[in-house]
Amino acid sequence: MTEPTPAASSAPSTSWMERARCSAVDSAVFFPECPTGPANDRSPYAAARAVCGRCPVTAECLDYALRNHERYGMWGGTTPAQRRTMKRGEPRPKEAS
Description:
Elements: H1 46-52, H2 58-67, H3 80-87
């Protein structure tokens, strides 16, 4: 008699989260109280951008955010406004220099 095999999960894998640089950072950095402003060093997301800029899994993180309709916080190096733009089919806005 053989053991039944577990059903394959249709949920996307989140194993990438273990390799994310943000896993060692306070989540408040990625969910600032005032999420508006330009994408530059004065932005409330500046600290999060610094972490995301060195992260090896930004593509997976962004994909997760888009698939799960994450409305708040920095995900995959993008702000909520940038993700809304991407969902409308517009290209990802370039960061201010």
